[in-house]
Amino acid sequence: MSSDVLKKRKAKVLRSEGSTPEMKRGRGEGDMADARVYSEEVELDGRDPEQDYQQYKQTCESLATLMGEIQELKANGAKEGCVEVEQRRLQSCIHFMNLKKLNRLAHMRLKRGRDQTHEAKQKVDVLHLQLQNLLYEVMHLQKEISKCLEFKSKHEDIDLVSEEEFYDEAPEEISRPHLTKNDKHQLTLARLDWELEQRKRLAEKYKECQSTKEKIQKSIESKKEHLGSLQPGLDAIMQASLPVQDYLSMPFEQTQKQTEVARHLPPSLYVLFVQANAYGQACDKNLCMSISGDVEEAKALSKPPEDSQDDESDSDAEEEQEKTKRRRPTTGGQLDDKRREMLKRHPLSLCLDLKCKDNSVLHLYFYYLMNLNILTVKTKVSTATDLSTAISAGELLNAETLLNCLYSNDQGRETPNPANRYQFDKVGIVTFADYVAELGHPYLWVQNLGGLQFPGDVPECGRVGSSLSASHMETTMKLLRGRVLSRLALHKQFTSLEHSIVPISAECQYLFPAKVITQLARWTTITHQDYTDLTYTRHVTDAGLAKETDLYFIAVVERGTASLQAAVVLSPRYPEVSPLFSLALSWKGERSGRTDDNLRAMESEVNVFKNELQGPSPGHQLLTNQIARLCVCLDVFLETDGQDDSVEGPREFPREKMCLRTVRGPNRLKPFKYNHPQGFFSHR
Description:
684 residues; 4-stranded antiparallel sheet; 4 domains; alpha+beta
């Protein structure tokens, strides 16, 4: 529908109602000159929104009804200009105009509501701002109150005398008891005045003492100069007395220098030095001590860092930083540096020289690992004569194994400090045994000599420090000397054994008959793995009597066609722990101590009844006596064996030994016990 048609229809409606704008304007101007101008805003105040809403709904329903009627008329064939259709169109236009008016009223109500809401919000914002200002003022006042309450005067830090002392000592012109006893403020002022008076007196006294101190200091300086002038003369006297000191074995000067150096030892090495020195003076004149290392470096370690040094080292630090920027270390290099730093030794070390009876010397070098807090030791043996080289004696004086198991189960392969395990994990050290050859062995007895006690150890009677060192010193020194003597004795014995000679000392000749036909054919050393591979040593291995720290040998004794092989386990604690023999005989077949009762009896002769073969104390001849007894037992075994009557000719092993009975019991045991001085063999 075009706009012209709509305008025409609107004009018709207005004419029918008699309310066109021109008509309204004419009535308004003619009838009421002073009447109020029509305004929808004024009308809005008198209208009810609910009624407008109901009118809106009714108008919409009426409009929908008219549209339906128009559609129905057109459907029934009504033409375009039909009167019924035009009437309904006019009514629809009136409803549209009514809807527009209601829409304008709704927008005006919305605008008015928004304006009222904005005005209310502005009022609330003004009130909120006033509230914030009031709260800020309250907070400021509270802070000022807190400052006033927390204020402390300087006189509160002064330790004043008590009120009783104040009234007893202060004069009345300062104490003013008539005023101060009732007024705390005046009392505090009076006490402060008395404190000031006392400090003035002390300041005067301090000046007097300072002048006295300066006079005494000058006197001391003059006496020092006098004593300093005496030093050259004393040095000349000490130099002249050196031959006398050497002749009397009283090296005072050397001892004094050593004592000066000992002041810079770490605590554990110092305890060892003091206790060893005391033990040497009291019990062992053959114990000598010396301190080696860089004394200046040790002094630098004991000095605390100074601020001046920091200033001087600023340039060095900058240079190091520049170097590190140029060359960034790899992860592996950093770990190596950390390991070296953790395993760092103290610059000073202690050397103990333990002299033995045959002029041999055991050198003990003690080191202290600063970061691990443990002591280690390295050894070396010096002999007066050049020992003949024996292949089987190669491990006897080996510095790595010489002191193994000096005390039971003390192998010195792992650190005894439990805290070191966590330190090793940080730098990637798997086991301390990899560094023993370089750093030394951390034996438990070494820690005890240095006064170190760790949670894993069991203290004796609660001794620690120097007391712990003193309690172990004498026993350890005796064990060390005994270990060297036993190894030197074994060295000499092994030299003879490798030449098929069983050395028997004159003191032990009575243990064996005059004539022994069986001879030692071979004496060789074997490894622990070789020993465990032997079939006739399985029972020793299963019992846990063959350890990796032991030494292993094979001895072969022969007589005629019979060959007896003995596998020997030699403990590092020999002769305290006797050697252990396992036997296998090759004669008329193969047999061993596990399959033959007589061979088992021969093992008992050398293993069980070892006390008869100990010889003179300390029993260094035990090993050779056992081998000699083994030769005698083989003679008895072969000579008492029955000969087959079907074989003609002389006996292979003629009877040379006198035996009361050749066999006894259901096991047919032979008489292996030698009875001195009768010279016959009997059963046990």
